Amino acid sequence: MSRKIKVLQLQNRYNVNASDLAEQVIQGLPVDRFEVTTAFLRDRPQPGGPESRAPRSVYFDFRQSDLKGLRLRALWRLYKLCREERFDVVIAHRFKPMNMLMLLNRWLRIPLCIGVQHGIGDFDRAYRRWEARRLLTSNWRVVGVSRAVRDYLVNCGAGFDTRNTVQINNAIDISRAESLQHPRGQARAMLGLTPEAFVFGTIGRLVPVKGHIYLIEAFARVQARYPQALVAIIGEGRARADLEAAIARHGLQGRVHLLGAKEDALQYVRAYDVFVMPSLSEGLPLALLEGMSGHLPVIGSDIDSLRPILEDCGGHLFRSGDVDDLAARLEQVLELSPQALREEGERAYAYLCEAHGIIDFRRQYLELISEGTPGSTDA
């Protein structure tokens, strides 16, 4: 029997939770064939907090300043870890870990390097494209987490092409998600929402790029005609004060609920009637998939990463940042019959199972790693 394939999974910040897709990659690698180490450039779990399922975790505890400029200290410590452990595969999530590995692998010569890109725009800068072209070698594979991210990478001029770049859709564990979800009435009671309301809901950090302000402004245009309708937003962040000001300006107290951050927020999705994703930019938002797991109709902006999903699942699209267009979509959904709403939710759920299931996600990463590491398929 061949020795185990040694894999390092490198992430920018510690963020281990039940929905963490890096953890799902680990879960898809058989323990009799792979030995996995997970490493985080910043942060570590609090006492009693969740830890990676990898047998070994490394917490570098770098400060933000350590990861700017030349980053010599951070690069040296990462180099020492890789040199000592002699990894066969390194999976680097997001731009910064991927860029550091591209620099170091000129000396490390790790057989297989996988960069996972979760969003659009990291290679918009000319210098980053030039650097990637110089550092990209034949042992690199790059993953886009959606069709839009993959297409961006292939067309951005950084040296990525259809030979070294693949699409592996972000996914969720649908069975787990459904097992966590509370029934509609219970979920509403836990969130303080009235049983008879029609609830437009979303989940996401309260930051401008998530577009919550457009949802509030759009709702303000239709709410007078639909007194039973509410908006509920699960999440916390620096934009809370701006959102509260908009709620006050339109007199929407009691009609728009900022519910704060919730652990495993997907457990509450059945409290919603419709899931809304008004983002200005996304890679592939797990929150939207979580909404679909609750058999909900979906509304989203027409940004590149959301458009194909919403088109394929039968969702409602609006022009990103266009309050009037979003208001029209809200009104369109409010006019649907209960049967039509149920049918839309079932179509979204069926699409989720077909395109974003966790079993297929794990399989694709296993195949990608196995193809790039000769001998990894040995029994």
From TrEMBL:
Chain ranges of the Glycosyltransferase subfamily 4-like N-terminal domain: 24-176
Biological process according to GO: carbohydrate derivative metabolic process
Stated EC number for the protein is 2.4.1.250
Ordered alphabetically, the record's keywords are: Glycosyltransferase, Transferase
The Gene Ontology terms for molecular function here are: D-inositol-3-phosphate glycosyltransferase activity
Q: What class of enzyme is it?
A: transferase
Every Glycosyl transferase family domain range: 191-339
The record's Gene3D superfamilies line, in alphabetical order, gives: Glycogen Phosphorylase B
The reply on keyword Glycosyltransferase is yes
InterPro entries named in the record: Glyco_trans_1, Glyco_trans_4-like_N
Kindly provide the name given to this protein in its UniProt entry: D-inositol-3-phosphate glycosyltransferase
Please give the organism. Zestomonas carbonaria
Upper taxonomic lineage: Bacteria, Pseudomonadati, Pseudomonadota, Gammaproteobacteria, Pseudomonadales
The encoding gene: mshA_2
